[in-house]
Amino acid sequence: MKAATLCTGIGGFDLACQNVGMEIIFQCEQDAACNRVLKHHWPDVERTEDVYDRRTFATLRRLRPDVLAFGSPCQDLSVAGQRAGLAGKRSRVFFRCMECAFACDAPWVVFENVLGLFSSRRGEDFASVLEAFTGVR
Fold first, then answer.
1. How far is residue 32's CA from residue 80's CA, in Å, rounded to a whole number?
2. pLDDT, position 111
3. Rg (CA), the chain
4. How far apart are the two ends of the chain, measured CA to CA in Å?
5. pLDDT at 75
6. C-alpha to C-alpha distances, 54 to 22, 24, 64, 96, nearest whole angstrom
7. Based on the number of CB atoms within 10 Å of its own CB, is 137 exposed (0-12), middle (13-18) or buried (19 or more)?
8. For every residue of the chain, which 3-state class applies, written as one string?
9. What's the CA gap between 79 and 19, in Å, rounded?
């Protein structure tokens, strides 16, 4: 199986996938320090730095991963944060990641986030996540 990650961080999910025999084929991460870690551990993996970059979208469509994993930045959702929810500047990247998932037709999509997603905007943000995955409101 081939795996790709968005908002990759330092590659925790990538390492787990690799450890069970998956091939890491793509990563997208904007943080420079994280990218140094990724380049060290996965020097030959295609990588972009912005999920909004057209190259990210095009590369995912070309590579067609079996698994696409992402976790939008959690600061807007965390109970310790400002609670801006999925409308927040950081966490709204969730919707772009979902566009990428549908565009590359990944059969498996893994989304990870914090407990605060369940209570953000009185549960409406979690409902938005379910709607994005299922198309059902």
1. 25
2. 95
3. 15
4. 31
5. 83
6. 26, 20, 15, 11
7. exposed
8. CEEEEECCCCCHHHHHHHHCCCEEEEEECCCHHHHHHHHHHCCCCEEECCCCCHHHHHHHHHHCCCEEEECCCCCCCCCCCCCCHHHCCCCCHHHHHHHHHHHHCCCEEEECCCHHHHCHHHHHHHHHHHHHHHCCC
9. 32
d(CA 85, CA 64): 30
- Which amino acid makes up residue 69? A
Closest CA to 122 of 74, 83, 95: 83
Q: Which among 79, 113, 119, 76 has a CA at the least distance from the CA of 97?
A: 113
Encode pLDDT of 66-125 as tens digits: 999 998 778 888 888 778 889 888 889 999 999 999 999 999 999 998 888 999 999 999
**How many of the other CB atoms lie within 10 Å of CB of 18?**
15
Token couple for 10:
């330092």
Q: Is the dihedral of CA 86, 79, 11, 34 positive or negative?
A: positive
